[in-house]
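Justification of resources, computational component.

The compute hours requested in this renewal are based largely on the per-chain cost of generating structure records like the one below. Each record pairs the submitted sequence with a full structure-token output. That output is archived, and it is also reused by downstream analysis tasks.
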Amino acid sequence: MAERTIVDVGKFLQKYGLNIGENPAFGGVGKGHSPTGYHPGGMAIDVRDWRPDMAPAYSGGKPKHWKERTGELSYRAKQLGLFNEALGPGDKGHDTHVHLALKGKKPITDQQLEWLATGRTTQGGKLTDVMPGGVLSAPSAAPQLPPNVDQRTQDVLEAFLHGTQYKIGPREQAVPKETLASSIKKQLVGQVLGQALNPMSFLDNYRTNDPFMQGSALANQDILSGIFG
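The structure output for this chain reads:
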């Protein structure tokens, strides 16, 4: 993969009819830029779509207004995540062009720049609008059982959930991303099964923590103390 500077990026975009400016290599830098900013240092370009007002972004594409094309160009630049700065319509002072800044060099492919310029690229011999070089999100980890669930409960819970998206323990595999609702459902099922399989633990916890049960126990102790005290 070739390493490219912002000047290399500008030259590539020119192949698609885009106008490049505000850089020493493309006609100089106008007034209004910070002297310590990217433009005077030759690390930024302004990309302007000065093709006809209504024109396709790529050969054979649907004609679009230049403002729409510029907005889409800005969106793609931000999605690629390659630039130190990517500003366009919607960002203050960039309603008519796209500002791209790149400090030094960065590995950038032809496909990425083709997609940046047109919204299309060729992959496997076919034209596609899929962003090249996108990183797929890692599969989510299998949901965890509620704490203090014994092996018997885990086995029952796994049998209950068999055939669903959940994979527990060493057989864990990549599975669809768990939703908040499914996570809550799993925890509730685990708690109910745990109580059903160990009722004495549940009753003991109820007797210990319920205020009414505690009050009754204290009252009984007072009565017995009065009789036998």
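The chain has two domains: 3-128, 151-228. The radius of gyration is 32 Å.
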